[in-house]
Amino acid sequence: MENTDKKNKKGFSRRKFLAISGSSLVGVLALLYFGRQTIRRKISDITSEMEIGADVSDLDPKLWFELNADNSITLKSPKVEMGQGIFTGFAMLAAEELDIQLDKIKVVHANSKNGVLSNTGVSNSTSSFYVIIREVAATLRETLKLQASKLWNVPVSSISTKDGMLISADKKISYADLAKQISKWEIAEKPTLRSSNNFKYVGKEAKRIDLPDKILGKPIYGIDVTLPDMVYGAVLYSPYFNGKLKSADTSNAKNTKGVLKIVEENTWIGVVATTRFAVETAVERIKADWDFATNINTKDIEKLITVGNGNGVNIQNDGDTNKVSNQAIIGEFRTPIGFHACLEPSIVVADYQDNKVTLYTSFQNPAYIQTVVSEALDIEKENIDIIPAYLGGGFGRKSFKSNVVEAVKLSKAVGKPVHLLYTRQQEFQNGYVRPNTHHVLKGKLGKDGKILAFEHDIATGPMAFKALPAIAEPILGADFVVAGHGSRCAYQIPNIKTTVWHNNLPFETSMWRGVGMFANTFAIESFMDELAYKANGNPLKFRIDHCDDTVQLARRKKILEIIAEKSGWNLSKPTDIGRGLAICDDRKTISAAVVEVKIIDGLIKVTKVIQAIDPGKIINPDGIRQQVEGATMMAISASLYEQGTIENGQFEQPNFHNYQVVRLSDAPEIEVILHEGADMPSGVGEPPIAPIAPAIANAVFNLTGKRLRSLPLQLAFQESKS
């Protein structure tokens, strides 16, 4: 298994990419259009936990691992590292099954030339690859034992492994030295995996293996890619929704020193030049006139996304919620448009040569960009190679909308590799956003103080349809797969009804970290708090009283009990501090937050956050804490400040100067509590973002008696005082 071995094992395809939705969901969508109401509820049941498996089928160890001369092993990760720490977790899993020291495992990005690729997102990297990486690593271990048995002429059963060595009686050889003696590999049958009771690394603290390169500033990101004869591209897009080019004066741009080519399309104008400065200067000199709809503003979008408007699809209907209509408690909530605000913009280097393309990408979804390039330029997918780079944050922004087609067309126009990146303004105005939402919740309490009936109506734009076949929209009727994700009530209530109201928006919307869970948890957990105060005044006990002994609710109850003890929930607190609680289930992970706030200079100040998380099997405790801390800060930002607005058919926020995000001065004390409540790992990157907004809102009510029903909370709080 030398580094030079590039041959495929028969039956495996290095380039087999599957859609992120999974073949099972596509199969469901292919059912007959008639009977779709039953289909919708069935899909809702399947997708409520957002459990999406691995989208790879090639498990040949030669495509995953390389044995190096120093007896280290390189794992070629199908997933991209975008700050979430998966390279470290993958290394830990591989080290366990390969029986080698953790520091001997190196992890790099696979590419379509030397490995398998998988789409990165929906918090499933570790959970979906937990078994797969171990299986491939164990297969490699047993393959080495099989080869050693032939070399030594001893039974395989007599050979053991330890710290990267093969041992049989007085015989001993390293993995690397054995590999040097093998000219033809025979792959072992899939072995039995090691028992988790014998793990050396999994479950213990491990330092991030990608930190040294990042600290030393090594060229690992898309912006660092440099190729021979490479030139630079820049694109002028319409700043307006769906703007079409009416006319353009490019004469000044063409006369800019260093400009090689100008390419005009229906929706953009591209420039290629010898330097970044030259190409940016040239684009600034283009005078373009755009055709666009001028009469779109924020109020129009809020009116469009309103419960009762559009197509309503019932996805949960248990019992008889007609009981809720009499003496119902009603809560109405709104969340705004949200930008991803990644510090790293979208970046791609495209090299088009003889109807073949090599793409160096900072992107989450290789299947998507391979497909769009193939369709846009009529190139066979087999002729499109993808070489991933590290991402400077993804958060769903780099799952679909990309500038890859523009880069390929510019490269084709000049016959050279072209380095292209979005400007900050283009990231805000020409990417895609999280759709705004509107929620109406109704609840009725029984004489026992428990909820008798519960209804949730949510209006939202689409998030998942871009990732699904065209047949999805007419069959599903509404995007409850992602945009409605988390809208179903998870508590034990006898009568529940959930309806998702769908309208398409005049701008592009898609995945945002936490997807539907962020908005839906804000509405549901804020409303649960209101019902709790109506019932018994104890938000913690009220939630526990609505958890039964089913697996997920039992885990939810346990996390509530843990966070109550660790936060001192039942203890007295200073009168100037408000304390709020919220919890959610997402991707089979339970996340709960207790937040403490103060009002300082008339503004909400989050002073402390305690997050308790049950992510199932814990791989790297330190990595999970980092993920929870990052999600907490992003959630505070989106909860307190972030809001996209529209005027005259365009987003009003072109940069951070008028799109406020969290700052260091906003950082509270954060404590993370880990609880291993299942035998298999589940999602970590997104679940902890969901409970923060309602926990802050509930804490403000606890302190001031004001119910905040819309995000951003700082704005809602100021309006509540007027």
UniProtKB/TrEMBL annotation:
Domain Aldehyde oxidase/xanthine dehydrogenase a/b hammerhead per the UniProt entry, residue ranges: 216-294
Superkingdom of this protein's organism: Bacteria
Pfam families, A to Z: MoCoBD_1 (PF02738), MoCoBD_2 (PF20256)
InterPro entries listed in its UniProt record: Ald_Oxase/Xan_DH_a/b, AldOxase/xan_DH_MoCoBD1, AldOxase/xan_DH_MoCoBD2, AldOxase/xan_DH_Mopterin-bd_sf, N-heterocyclic_Hydroxylase, OxRdtase_Mopterin-bd_su_IorB
Transmembrane portions of the chain: 17-35
Signal sequence segment: none
Membrane recorded as keyword: yes
Record keywords: Membrane, Transmembrane, Transmembrane helix
Presence of keyword Chaperone: no
Name of the protein in its database record: Molybdopterin-dependent oxidoreductase
